[in-house]
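Each lists chain and fold; for instance:
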Amino acid sequence: MEAELNYRFFTGNRRRLRELFTGTAPIVITANGQLQRSGDSTYPFQQDANFWYLTGINEPDMVLVLDKDKEYLIRQKRSEYQDVFDGQVDDRELTRRSGVEEVLGCDEGWKRLAARLKRVKHVATIAPPPQYVEVYGMYTNPARWVLTRTLREHNNKLELLDIAPHLVKMRTVKQPPELAAIQRAIDITADNLKQIIRPANLKKYQYEYEAEADLTRLFRRSGSRHAFDPIVAGGPRACTLHNTNMDGALSASELLLFDVGAESEGYAADISRTVAIGQPSRRQQQVFDAIKEVQSYAYTLLRPGVTMKTYEEKVEHFMGEKLRELGLIQSIDRDAVRRYYPHATSHHLGLQVHDVSDRTAPLEENMVLTVEPGIYIPEESIGIRIEDDVRITESGVEVLSSTLPAKLV
């Protein structure tokens, strides 16, 4: 397959989905909807990753239908206001991008789909998420709930089949075009972060947001943008894992943590570096060196066939040894380790910075993961994280972000 995210890639993904889903039921997938920010304005639109993976289309409220050997797109019903202020949707561009030849208006498309729904017992779709995810304190996009309700309005006896496990399986192992896009995102991140963390540049920043603003400018100049809200955290604020306020003043005696990633064609990079603004103390260097050892150890564990559970348990124990050497804990038990190392070592990377995966399944070649050990010591105002992106190879890992060495100075 060509290393390019064009209509062949998206057409191939739809074909593979049909092959994995052996049933005869129609497959109906919705795009995300836009969310109100205030008054008549919306938050920046973020497409549903599964819809994008199957179509490459970045328009809201569209519906993809795969029915036997037929496929078509249903456009949202748009107001004159949307056409004037947001621009009109070009059907030819939708087809060029996705490879889906037939694009129908809202009324015509739903009329066709409704006639089919009345004759079937099952429809395959993606189950809606909880409307509110308590652990993250966030509401989810309602588009899948709306689609589910609309499908049942046309046939209240429909049984909905969740096709998400098939998409997880497909998306977890990356294809050549995806690997190329991820590498581009990583290269943009590494090249520009390298400029920001030069000692001469670091000394000019008085506040965290100044460093973030420079990085944003460099990303945009590179034709990219942030794949997620950047984290720039100095001193004790680095102990808050998602310090996105970035309004803290910087001191020459502190460390500065960056957790950032550019985006390329929807695919994310995710790199963390912690650097000294001035001359690092002996203690800061000790903690940094311990994290480097943990990351190097983690690399030795990753290979096809390994499960994330076994991997994380081994890294956690090794981290415990380092924390004990640093005098932070006396015995290696989970609660003691998690006090200073409260997050996982790795997550999958792709269309989402925390990409979909089955963490019970063994690793396979061409999966892409982060490796991001960290130690956070609030009582010492030290928070250090080192994060690199790796590809699982036939026998181990390839570090995709190796062009940006991790060092304090």
Observations:
- The radius of gyration is 23 Å.
